[in-house]
Write a structure and sequence with these properties.
single chain, mainly alpha
Length: 163
């Protein structure tokens, strides 16, 4: 057995020692972490031996809950700053986001954003730009579900081919 197989089997044994109801919670926590998100959480869950559908739902839910918190806090922070608005020069990063936002809109930035940045950052930038919270959350939910589902299909396909 090669080292990767040993690592995977060890990880599966570790996950199997947890109560079954705790396993999706661990996957959801992984999904809430920037750069891991729903996609990585799904892979972690599936490789860990969690039912693939349960893993994807838990990872996407964890990702969405974290993004929702970011959006709600970001909207409040924006509201506080706009009350005391003082003109400031825009940073290069802000200019880059604004250019993408102008070109692709909320839907495009939400759907394409995960290719470049964690959804948390994209959602914060959208909320900070003054986009309505509901609109940001709706498009982030669509993006999270699509990317998590795509990842689930890829990882289960790889496992089916390898197995």
């Amino acid at each position: 057995m090669n080292p990767v197989e040993n690592l995977i089997l060890g990880f599966q044994d570790l996950v199997a020692q947890l109560p079954e109801w705790v396993q999706p919670l661990i996957v959801a926590l992984a999904g809430a972490v920037p750069f891991i998100e729903g996609e990585g959480g799904t892979v972690i869950g599936v490789v860990g031996g969690v039912n693939p559908i349960v893993a994807a739902i838990a990872a996407a839910a964890g990702n969405f809950i974290a993004v929702a918190i970011v959006v709600l806090l970001g909207a409040q922070i924006r509201a506080a700053f706009t009350r005391r608005r003082q003109p400031r020069p825009r940073s290069a990063r802000r200019e880059k986001f604004q250019k993408a936002f102008n070109r692709y809109g909320v839907a495009g930035v939400s759907l394409l954003g995960p290719l470049l940045l964690p959804t948390h950052f994209t959602a914060a930038a959208l909320a900070g730009s003054g986009v309505a919270k509901g609109r940001v959350l709706a498009w982030q939910a669509v993006a999270i579900v699509l990317w998590t589902t795509l990842t689930l299909l890829i990882i289960t396909g790889i496992i089916a081919i390898a197995g």
